[in-house]
Amino acid sequence: MTGKEDRMTLTTGRTAGSDGIAIRRRRTPATPYLLLIPAVAALLVGLGYPVYWQIITSLQEFGLMQQFGAPPEFIGLDNYTRIFTDPEVWSVVAKSIAFCLVNALVTVGLGLGLAVLMRAVPGWVRMSMQITLLLAWATPLVAAVTVFRWLFDDRNGVVNWMFVQLGRENLDGYNWLGNVWTFFLVASLVVIWMSVPFVALSIYAGLTQVSEEVLEAARIDGAGSRQILWRIIMPLVRPVIAIVLLLQIIWDLRVFAQIRLLQDAGAPISETNLLGNYIYELGVGSQDFAGAAAVSLFVLVLTMVLSGPYVRYLMKEDAA
Q1: CA of 71: how far to CAs of 49, 57, 64, 66, 68, in Å?
Q2: What are the ABC transmembrane type-1 domain coordinates in residue numbering (predicted)?
Q3: Residue 16: which H helix or E strand, with range?
Q4: Is 107 in contact with 199 (CB distance < 8 Å)?
Q5: Beta 22-24 vs 14-16: how paired, if at all?
Q6: CB of 114 within 8 A of CB of 133?
Q7: What structural domains does the chain harbor?
C-alpha cells in the first residue's frame, strides 16, 4: 500500500480485508466520556475529599487539643491497633451485622408480601394501601421514633396496657428500652416500619412490568397461582429485589438516629450501641476523632464486603 493509500485509510477509517472488501473500523465516541466528567468531578470532591480526610486523621493523634489548634502528630497504625484490640469494638460489630442482616431480610420479606398483595387486590384497596404506605414513609423520623417511645413507655405505654389486659400482669411497668434484647426489638420495629413502604412500592413497580400475556399463557398451560408466583413472577422481579435488599443492608448497617433517639429514653448506651452510635460516642463524646475516623473507615470496608455479593450478582444480571 502506497503512502497516499495509507493517508486515505486513516482519513476514511476503512481497511481492506483479504477479499478486497473495505471494512469500517468502529470508532468509540468521546462525547459520553466528556459528559461524565462533571459527575465524576462532583463525586471526587463530595466523596473523595471526606474519605481522604478520614484516612489522614486515622493515622494521626487527633483529639481535643487538635480542635483548639494544636498540630496533629503522625502515629501510623496505632489508632487501628488501639481500637481493634478492644473487645467492645467487636461486640458492637457483631451486633451491627446481626441487626443489619435480620432487619434487611425481614423488611424485604414484608415488602415483597405487600407488593404481591397489592397486585392481587381490587383497585380501590390497592390505592388505599399505597396511600397508607406513602404516609408511613413520609412520617418524619423523629416523629416516628417518638410514637414508638410512647407505645412502649413503661408507665403509660399502650403495649404494656394491652399485655396486662391479656393477662400478662408481669409486664405491668416493664421497661422495654432498659433491656438490651427488648431494646433491639423495639429498634427493629422502628427501622422495619419506616423501611417497608419503600421496599413494597419498589417491588410493586417491578411487578407492574410483568406482561399479562406471559401470565395468561402460563394459566392456559395449566400453571397454578403458586407456580406462576415462584416460577414466573419472582424470576422476572429478582433484579429489583436484589437492589432493594442491597440498599437495605447498606442503610441498616449505618443506622444511627433511631438508635440514638431510643437511647435518650433511658436505655443503657454502652450495651445498645451500634457502629454509627459507637463512632459518635468516640468522636463527639470522648473527643477521640482519630479513633472515630478509624472505625468509620472500617464501616466503609465492611459495607463493601457485605454488599459485594449483591453487586456481583447485579453485574451478572446486567451482562446477561
Answers
A1: 20, 12, 11, 6, 9
A2: 93-310
A3: strand 14-16
A4: yes
A5: antiparallel
A6: yes
A7: 66-319 (1.10.3720.10)
